[in-house]
């Protein structure tokens, strides 16, 4: 029952305190499955729970435990009675034995009424997305909105970035096969392998030696597009946790590269990734908006965003973001873009990217900026994924494929 107790603790941080989903080292795979599942199917599960409760309980831990129980019955590959018993016994573990009857009654009732309740869910609830986001997606992408929502409700695949400076794709794929791990190549992304089933990083051969990293295929498109040349001064302005920083160095180790971020913990992650890969660059803990220094030949500006393109990896985003957040973020993104432009050498190139699928943070930000400049040329984004926009390219989350992502390339001219 410890897994359910842990799931209550983790989900409480998201649902009652409004903080991001975060696991500790001791949390089990079942605990993680419960948390991801409850957040992914949150709106349906709340509908089921509230339809079964004759009177809402003020005990948030019990409310969350019921969501875990209903999810278990619906999705876990185990007998229903095992899920019911686990939830009932968890009441003792959280020191509320008096609630055992309530929990048992609600879950047994769900077993009996499941088919009827499922048939009665309205269309909006069935989407398992907040209404504001559904409205935004349908407004921005009327032909893609349904497939975006469907992809968000599926777990994301685990994709690897093979370090081609240390090994090659065929050799590493063979190492994985020896471990019983099945993968497929992604033809449009050199160095990318998608695992058939997600595994822990400890299961990946050569992970600690830097042979491989975990990075979605959309994110893997960024570093090659920056087209960094030996000896160039490169800035990764919002670098943490360092995936793109490391990818740049794998592709071209002879760079004068500065990785910058404002968060101390995330700065440490950059260093850890560099150490694991056996490479190095300068790291600065600073808010890029406060930067004063030399100019750069290339700037990678992967700005803070709503992360609406990676909901399938972080389903808590559906509950933590609202429409106002998008407006606030777009202001910050515009400021970051203007700051980066000031520190880009004439003839230099800037790559703007987000893991958002909302135009307010993507094409609108870059277009508004570009329309005010006479020293800017828009460069093509030569990738197969996504759709071409007036500026940049928009990728949508795809079942068994890449995350949602936006990329634009800009050149500074005299």
Short description:
Helix content is 44%, strand content 15%. With 414 residues, it is of the alpha/beta class.
Description:
With 414 residues, the chain is an alpha/beta fold. The protein has 3 domains: 125 residues, Orthogonal Bundle (N-utilizing Substance Protein B Homolog, Chain A), CATH 1.10.940.10; 56 residues, Alpha-Beta Plaits (2-Layer Sandwich); 196 residues, Vaccinia Virus protein VP39 (Rossmann fold). It is built from 17 helices and 13 strands. Strands 5, 6, 7, 8, 9, 10, 11, 12 and 13 form a 9-stranded mixed beta sheet that branches. The longest helix is centred in the first third of the chain and has 21 residues. The chain is globular and about 75 Å long. The chain starts with a helix and ends with a strand.
Quote the beta fraction: 15-25%
- Rounded to the nearest angstrom, the radius of gyration is 23 Å
The average pLDDT is 97
Strand/helix succession = HHHHHHHHHEHEEEHHEHEHEEHHEHEEEE
Tell me the number of strands. 13
* Approximate helicity band: 40-55%
As an assembly, this protein is single chain
**Cα shape:** globular
Q: Which structural class fits the helix and strand makeup?
A: alpha/beta
Number of helix segments? 17
Number of domains: 3
| Spans of at least 5 consecutive residues with low confidence | none
The H-level CATH homologous superfamily of the largest domain, spelled out, is: Vaccinia Virus protein VP39
**Top CATH class of the largest domain:** Alpha Beta
End-to-end distance, in Å? Answer: 66 Å
What kind of sheet is the major sheet? 9 strands, mixed
Based on the structure given, which CATH architecture of the largest domain is correct? 3-Layer(aba) Sandwich
């Amino acid at each position: 029952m410890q897994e359910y107790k842990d799931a209550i603790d983790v989900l409480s941080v998201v649902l009652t305190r409004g903080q991001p989903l975060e696991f500790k080292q001791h949390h089990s795979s079942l605990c993680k499955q419960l948390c991801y599942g409850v957040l992914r199917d949150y709106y349906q599960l709340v509908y089921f729970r509230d339809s079964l409760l004759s009177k809402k309980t003020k005990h948030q831990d019990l409310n969350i435990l019921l969501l875990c129980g209903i999810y278990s019955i619906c999705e876990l590959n185990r007998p229903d009675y095992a899920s019911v018993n686990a939830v009932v016994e968890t009441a003792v573990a959280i020191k509320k034995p008096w609630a055992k009857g309530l929990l048992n009654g609600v879950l047994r009732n769900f077993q009996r009424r499941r088919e009827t309740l499922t048939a009665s869910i309205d269309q909006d609830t069935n989407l398992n997305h907040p209404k504001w986001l559904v409205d935004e997606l349908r407004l921005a992408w009327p032909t893609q909105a349904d497939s975006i929502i469907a992809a968000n409700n599926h777990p994301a695949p685990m994709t690897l970035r093979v370090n081609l400076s240390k090994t090659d794709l065929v050799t590493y794929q063979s190492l994985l096969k020896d471990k019983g791990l099945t993968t497929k190549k992604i033809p449009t992304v050199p160095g990318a392998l998608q695992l058939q089933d997600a595994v822990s990083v400890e299961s990946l051969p050569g992970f600690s030696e830097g042979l491989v990293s975990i990075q979605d295929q959309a994110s893997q498109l960024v570093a090659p597009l920056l087209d960094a040349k030996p000896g160039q001064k490169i800035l990764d302005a919002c670098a943490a946790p360092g995936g793109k920083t490391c990818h740049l160095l794998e592709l071209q180790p002879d760079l004068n590269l500065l990785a910058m971020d404002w968060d101390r913990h995330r700065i440490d992650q950059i260093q850890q990734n560099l150490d694991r890969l056996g490479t190095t660059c300068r790291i600065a803990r600073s808010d890029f908006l406060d930067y004063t220094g030399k100019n750069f030949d290339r700037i990678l500006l992967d700005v803070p965003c709503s992360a609406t393109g990676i909901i399938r990896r972080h389903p808590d985003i559906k509950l933590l973001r609202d429409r106002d957040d998008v407006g606030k973020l777009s202001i910050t993104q515009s400021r970051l873009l203007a700051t980066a432009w000031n520190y880009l050498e004439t003839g230099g190139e800037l790559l703007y990217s987000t893991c958002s699928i909302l135009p307010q943070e993507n094409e609108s930000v870059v277009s508004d900026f570009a329309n005010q400049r006479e020293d800017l040329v828009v460069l093509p984004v030569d990738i197969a994924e996504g759709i071409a926009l007036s500026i940049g390219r928009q990728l949508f989350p795809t079942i068994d494929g890449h995350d949602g992502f936006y990329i634009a390339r800009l050149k500074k001219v005299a």
